[in-house]
Design a protein that fits this description.
Layout: H1 3-15, H2 19-34, H3 39-66, H4 87-94, H5 98-101, E1 105-109, H6 115-128, E2 133-137, H7 138-151, H8 154-162, E3 166-172, H9 179-195, E4 198-203, H10 210-214, H11 217-227, E5 232-236, H12 241-254
Parallel strand pairs: 1-4, 1-5, 2-3, 3-4
Helix pairs in contact: 1-2, 2-3, 7-8, 7-9, 9-11
Length: about 260
């Protein structure tokens, strides 16, 4: 194959926005000659390179959209430190079967016990599998919806929270909500329930306290009715990770046997 034909193919691949294929075409063509590949084998390698690049690019875009606060995995969670968390149940959620029916997942527990870690890790698995995901905290979500309502673009903003296949709402109950905020929260939960999209919630408040959170027992009951239907609920009883780290640091700095010598 002449050099002019090589360049023409590379240019055509670039024109078709098959950038990775254009980048590796010459190298793979040389390998095809030295390794005596068939035309089909060469084409499979070339298409495979482009497909992997496209998958990685799309995954990166979905992760940017999701706005996860960190990249955590289930394997990084210390189940020995939090023995009340059922590892088998978490592993079952990792199969993403819960996405098929839009099952909600609720993580209850005191601040620092690992609720957000598990919620983000499970949602990240869904995004890596090709689903659209989004992460927000409850206060930010209702504030954004309220602002959108004032500015006349409520329907558009609601789609931010209702369109993704999986939504993580973090820190429900950290701050109380007024009537408008409670209404916004209900709209998101209700629309997602109707679409059978999975909602993952973390909260440091017991479910009986949700009437106090939303300032209205009727609204709280309506929200819980949708979130609890066929839900997976974790009630984490263990201590705070951050408190453990603080205690370990304090011990290390006050125990003379653990101080570094200068």
């Amino acid at each position: 194959m002449s050099g002019g034909v090589y360049e023409q193919i590379k240019d055509d691949l670039g024109y078709l926005q098959l950038d990775r294929a254009a980048e590796v075409f010459a190298t793979l063509a040389e390998q095809a000659r030295t390794e005596d590949m068939t035309h089909v084998e060469f084409l499979a390698r070339l298409v495979g390179e482009q497909a992997n690049a496209t998958r990685n690019r799309r995954l990166a875009a979905r992760l940017r959209f999701a706005k996860f606060p960190f990249r955590k995995t289930i394997d990084e969670f210390d189940f020995a430190f939090q023995p009340t968390v059922d590892r088998k149940l978490v592993d079952d959620l990792a199969t993403l079967r819960f996405m098929e029916t839009g099952r909600p997942i609720l993580f209850l527990g005191q601040p620092g016990c690992g609720k957000t870690h598990l919620a983000a890790a499970i949602a990240t698995l869904a995004v890596e599998a090709g689903f659209r995901g989004y992460f927000t905290n409850a206060e930010e979500m209702v504030a954004n919806i309220a602002q959108a309502n004032r500015e006349g673009n409520l329907a558009s903003k609601l789609k931010t929270y209702t369109a993704p296949s999986v939504l993580v709402i973090d820190d429900v109950g950290l701050l109380p909500m007024d009537r408008a905020a409670a209404s916004a929260f209900y709209q998101v939960v209700n629309l997602r329930y109707e679409k059978q999209h999975s909602t993952i919630v973390t909260t440091n408040r017991g479910l009986p306290d949700w009437g106090e959170i939303f300032g209205d027992t009727v609204v709280a009951a309506a929200i819980l009715d949708r979130l609890m239907h066929n839900a997976v609920v974790f009630n984490i009883k263990g201590p705070s990770w951050r408190l453990r780290e603080h205690q370990a640091l304090t011990a290390a700095t006050t125990d003379p046997t653990k101080r570094r010598r200068t």
